[in-house]
Amino acid sequence: AQSVTQLDSQVPVFEEAPVELRCNYSSSVSVYLFWYVQYPNQGLQLLLKYLSGSTLVKGINGFEAEFNKSQTSFHLRKPSVHISDTAEYFCAVSASRGGSQGNLIFGKGTKLSVKP
Amino acid sequence: EAQVTQNPRYLITVTGKKLTVTCSQNMNHEYMSWYRQDPGLGLRQIYYSMNVEVTDKGDVPEGYKVSRKEKRNFPLILESPSPNQTSLYFCASSYLGMTETQYFGPGTRLLVL
Predict the structure, then answer these.
(1) CA distances to A53, A86, A89, B3, B25 from B109, in Å
(2) What are phi and psi of A109, to 5 degrees?
(3) Chain B residue with Cα closest to A39
(4) What's the pLDDT score for residue A99?
């Protein structure tokens, strides 16, 4: 079984500052990793995903994440945030093979609050 | 427009009164899934379906039923709702395979009194 831990429930940051949202996962098999964003009163939207290959993954809206297998982490970063990045961010994991492939496990979310 | 639709968007009901939340997608996706979102708990998967007539339990299936008789529809059924099922529910769909991007519906906010 897989699990996901998002280390910060809330991250306040000033506009144009860099931000890192932390995510650690646990799994006995190879995994796919995802970051989703949820803007207020909306559904979730995929930011980026790691499937294989390069450990640095670039997504939409200037976000990127780095897969670190030895530390079982998949932290999300943005060098300069905007007010419009205020949202809740979810890290998610699924098994890349095996019977639980359809099971997507989400972390509890990190609320990013960007202040002017 | 490619989309996942859910109905109703808001629902207030009473304990024990059967209800169905519908989910429909127009992208010919094989995979569909239901999640519930609760404050501090994130999203938890209730059921998922890999194709017509193929469904499987997620992490929190108790108290819920699903069916997948058509590719585009994946209704969530609460046979006897209880207050602990008060939550925000999301339906999602994708092409088959967890490498594919899941597209989420707008959510259904359910209050069980």
Answers:
(1) 39, 22, 20, 19, 19
(2) 95, 150
(3) B106
(4) 56
